[in-house]
Specification:
With 505 residues, this protein is mostly helical. The protein is 62% helix and 4% strand. α22 links the parallel β1 and β2.
Length: 505
C-alpha cells in the first residue's frame, strides 16, 4: 500500500512488533483493570456473565452475544475471583485491539515509529483505556474493526478474494458483538458494488462472502430468530435488533444543543490532550498519497466521518463511550500523519518528540479530576457512596478500586433482616453480586429493573400496601428516577447509613 512498500519493516519485524505491542498493552491493561465488581453497565455485564445470559432484557441491540460468549468461557479459568476474571478478559481483548492497530499501520506504512505512535495514541486515549479497565463490549468491537481493516488492506495489496471472505466473516462476528459494525458494513457493501461494476469479483464470490458473513453473525441471528419465534412480531423484533427496547429516538436523533456540542468537544479533547492530535489533519492530507488503492483511503476517511457524526448527535447519557470508534480511526490518521511528518523531517529527534508527546495523556488524566471539579463540569443528580464521580470517570485506570464492595458491605450492614432493598441500575449490580456471587445477606431481597434476588416480590399498586405493612423496605436513593414512584408517593425516607428506610405515611 505504501509507495515505499518492500522497504522498511520486514515481515519478521512486523511480527515481533505486534507481539511486543500486544504484551505492552496487555501489561498496562492488566495493571489498570478493576479487581472486582463495578457499578452500572460494567456491573450488569458481570451479573449477566454470572448467569450465563447472552441476551439480557434491554432489547436485542443491547444483547452483545459474542462478548458474553467469550466472557462466559473465560469465567471458568481459575484465576482470582469471578469479577476479576471478567475484567481481565476485556483487558486482554483491548490489548489485541491496540496490537491490531499497530499491525494495520505497520503493514500499510512499513515504518515502525508511526505504527507505534498510532497504537500508543489509541492505547492511552481516555475512553478506550477506561473501557479496557472494566468489562465493556466496545473494545471487542474495535479489535474486530481493526482486524477487518488489516484484512481489507491485504485484499487491496493482493486482490485475492479469500481476503474478502475473511472480511465478511470478521464483520459478521462484529455484528454479533455490537451494531457499531453496521457502519463499516455499509462501506464494505459500497466497495463490493464498485468491484462488481469493475468485474473484479463474481456472483459466486459474493455468495461466498454472504455465507461467511452469516456464519460470523450466527450468535446474533440466533437471538433474532428466537425472538421472532417467541414474540411472533417480525417488525418488533427488527426494531429491537436495530435500536433495543427504548433507544430508537436516540439512535435516529438529528438535533443538537449547545450543551451537547460543548460536552462532546470536551470528551474529544480529554482523549487527545496532546499536540499529536494535529497529526490527524496531516494524515487526512497525506492518506491518498500513502495508498496505491484510493478506495482504501476513502473507506478510512468515511469511517472517521461516520463514526464522529453518529456519536456527536447521539443523546444517550453515556454517549461519550460511542466516540471510541472515532478515536480508533483518528489514531489511524495520527499514525499516517506521523509518517508524513517524519518523512519530511527525517530527524530522530522529531520521532522521539512525537513519542514523548504521546505520553502526555497520563499526566492529563491525573490533573483532569481536579480541574473538572473546580469548573463543576459534571452534573450529578446524586452522590453515590464510595464513588468520587470526577475521579471515577476522568481517570481511566481502576487499579485497586473497591468502592463498590465497600458500598455493598455497608448497605448489607445497615439493612434489617429479611428486608427489601430497592436499587437502581447503577447500584443494583454490586448488591446482587455480593449476594449471589459471594453469598452475603441471602435473607435480603434486592429488587431492580436490571435484576432481582430470587423470589423477590413484585411491587405493584395491588401489592405495595401489603409489602410496606409486612416487611421493612429500603431504597438506595429516594429520588425520582432512582426509586419506584409507588414508594415515593406513599413514604417518607430516613437515612440508615448508605441507604434509606422507607416509612409509610
Amino acid at each position: 500500500m505504501s509507495k515505499t512498500a518492500g522497504k522498511g519493516m520486514s515481515t519478521e519485524g512486523i511480527r515481533a512488533g505486534y507481539i511486543a505491542v500486544l504484551v505492552a498493552a496487555g501489561v498496562l491493561y492488566v495493571i489498570s483493570c478493576a479487581p472486582g465488581v463495578l457499578w452500572q453497565d460494567s456491573g450488569l455485564i458481570q451479573y449477566r456473565v454470572w448467569h450465563n445470559d447472552i441476551e439480557g432484557n434491554l432489547g436485542l441491540a443491547l444483547a452483545h452475544p459474542l462478548f458474553y460468549i467469550i466472557a462466559i468461557a473465560a469465567k471458568y479459568i481459575p484465576l482470582g475471583e469471578f469479577g476479576y476474571r471478567v475484567n481481565l478478559t476485556n483487558a486482554i481483548i483491548s490489548a489485541f485491539a491496540v496490537a491490531n492497530l499497530f499491525l494495520l499501520l505497520a503493514l500499510w506504512l512499513r515504518n515502525v515509529l508511526p505504527a507505534v505512535v498510532g497504537a500508543m495514541t489509541l492505547a492511552l486515549s481516555h475512553t478506550f483505556w477506561q473501557h479496557a479497565a472494566m468489562p465493556e463490549v466496545y473494545n471487542l468491537s474495535m479489535a474486530l474493526l481493526l482486524l477487518e481493516l488489516v484484512i481489507l488492506l491485504q485484499y487491496a495489496k493482493t486482490e485475492k478474494p479469500g481476503w474478502l471472505y475473511g472480511l465478511a466473516l470478521v464483520n459478521g462476528l462484529a455484528i454479533a458483538n455490537h451494531m457499531f459494525a453496521s457502519i463499516p458494513l455499509a462501506c464494505y457493501l459500497i466497495l463490493v458494488v464498485m468491484l462488481m461494476r469493475r468485474r473484479r469479483i463474481t456472483g459466486s464470490q459474493i455468495l461466498a462472502m454472504a455465507f461467511f458473513w452469516i456464519l460470523g453473525a450466527l450468535p446474533y441471528e440466533y437471538l433474532i430468530i428466537k425472538d421472532i419465534a417467541l414474540r411472533g412480531d417480525f417488525r418488533q423484533t427488527l426494531s429491537s435488533a436495530a435500536f433495543g427496547v427504548s433507544y430508537k429516538h436516540n439512535v435516529l436523533n438529528v438535533s443538537l444543543s449547545a450543551r451537547i456540542v460543548k460536552e462532546n468537544l470536551m470528551w474529544i479533547a480529554l482523549n487527545f490532550p496532546t499536540p499529536n492530535a494535529l497529526l490527524a489533519f496531516v494524515g487526512i492530507a497525506a492518506i491518498h498519497s500513502s495508498c496505491r488503492k484510493r478506495w482504501f483511503a476513502n473507506i478510512i476517511l468515511a469511517l472517521s466521518a461516520l463514526f464522529l457524526l453518529f456519536a456527536f448527535r447521539y443523546t444517550v447519557v453515556d454517549r461519550y463511550a460511542f466516540f471510541i470508534p472515532f478515536y480508533c480511526t483518528a489514531s489511524i490518521l495520527i499514525g499516517v500523519g506521523a509518517a508524513g511528518f517524519l518523512t519530511r523531517r527525517r530527524s530522530r529527534t522529531a520521532g522521539r518528540m512525537i513519542l514523548a508527546l504521546s505520553l502526555l495523556t497520563i499526566p492529563a488524566y491525573f490533573i483532569a479530576p481536579k480541574v473538572a471539579k473546580r469548573l463543576n463540569v459534571i452534573t450529578r443528580p446524586r452522590n453515590i457512596p464510595y464513588r468520587d464521580d470526577y475521579v471515577y470517570f476522568l481517570r481511566p485506570w481502576k487499579t485497586g478500586y473497591l468502592g463498590t464492595e465497600q458500598f455493598s458491605d455497608c448497605a448489607f450492614r445497615d439493612a434489617d433482616r429479611n428486608a427489601l432493598v430497592f436499587a437502581d441500575s447503577t447500584t443494583a449490580p454490586p448488591l446482587l453480586y455480593a449476594q449471589q456471587v459471594k453469598g452475603q445477606r441471602t435473607d435480603l431481597k434486592i429488587i431492580s429493573d436490571v435484576g432481582s434476588s430470587a423470589d423477590a416480590p413484585k411491587l405493584t399498586e395491588e401489592t405495595v400496601q401489603k409489602i410496606l405493612a409486612e416487611r421493612k423496605v429500603y431504597v438506595v436513593t429516594p429520588t425520582k428516577g432512582y426509586c419506584p414512584e409507588l414508594l415515593l408517593e406513599r413514604c417518607t425516607f430516613e437515612q440508615a447509613g448508605v441507604i434509606y428506610r422507607a416509612i409509610p405515611r
